Amino acid sequence: MELNRHIVNKQIVTTLKYIVALALMIFAVIPFFWIVATSFNPARSLLGANLIPSALTVNNYFDLLSNTNLFFGKWMLNSFKVSAISVIIIVMLTCTSAYALSRFRFAGKRGVMMGIMILNIFPGILAMIAIFVMMQQIGNYFPMIGLNTHGGLICVYVAGAMSINVLMVKSYIDTISCELDESALIEGATYWQIFWKIIFPVIKPMVITVAILAFMSTYGDFVIANLLLKGNDRVTVMVGIYQFTQQRFDTNWGIVTAGTVMAAIPVVVLFFASQKYIIGGVMMGAIKE
After folding, report:
1. Looking at the structure, do residues 86 and 23 belong to the same domain, yes or no?
2. Is residue 62 situated within a structural domain?
């Protein structure tokens, strides 16, 4: 009797878990399908759109690319440019910094590690005012990386992505035996050769993970890009779509949702194509022998 009651209670708990999980999935997926449906709906309003439109049209996509008030192609190009350069710099600095912290002993190493840990728990949104003022001051001396420049935005992205990525890569390098380094040093290899020919090939899965996550975070960022960039010719696609909604009283939400869908396609494709690398890389960075 007691065993049957235990089995029934377990089944009830399991059923409740599935119900909660299903409700959360529906809550997360419905807005996405609503946006996609609105992009194919001839209605200009979100309220008039149905999850399954009665009539489908691709005019919103044609209007998006031909609208003279929109610079969608330019915005996409800006996003890819900023994200690509940011990813390259982030990967280079992350890998070399993690290698130095993992293999070398130097004065202040403990302080650097503590600083990285503190940066991970400090909410970045609280630094928005400081970032704006700092970039404004820097622009007075170095216009290429000041306000309203892609160089300044890239600098902020690189600085913000370094902390957690360095810890992940360092944890992975720590699992690689130091005997490989010692053997290479005996054979006359330099530290750069050891890193490039021995360490880097081993940590490639983690490098791919860092690159993918960095691209997704920089490409999809709105807050920092909206803070630092102004003007239709400089903003990224996320900021550009938002600014378009603020320019008109009668916003054409069909065009806006079409732009949202097109802007999301690269990230969605990249995520599904590299899902195994993301999961595997994060797990590798969390395991330390």
Report:
1. no
2. no
Residue 115, domain member (yes or no): yes
Q: What are the C-alpha distances in Å from 112 to residues 87, 106, 116, 167?
A: 23, 10, 6, 11
Alpha-carbon span 84 to 87, nearest angstrom: 5
Helices (H) and strands (E) in the chain, counts: 14, 0
For residue 63, tell me if it sits in a domain. Answer: no
State how many domains the chain has.
2
Query: What are the tens digits of pLDDT across the range 25-44?
Result: 888 888 888 888 888 887 76
The pTM assigned to this predicted structure is 0.85
SS3 183: helix
Q: By three-state DSSP, how is residue 81 classified? A: helix
Which amino acid, 258? A
Summarised one tens digit per residue, pLDDT across range 67-95 is 777 889 999 999 999 999 999 999 999 99
Contact partners, residue 210, CB within 8 Å, separation at least 6? 90, 91, 94, 165, 168, 169, 281
DSSP letter (8 states) at residue 147: T
Under a CB-based contact definition with an 8 Å cutoff, are residues 98 and 77 in contact?
no
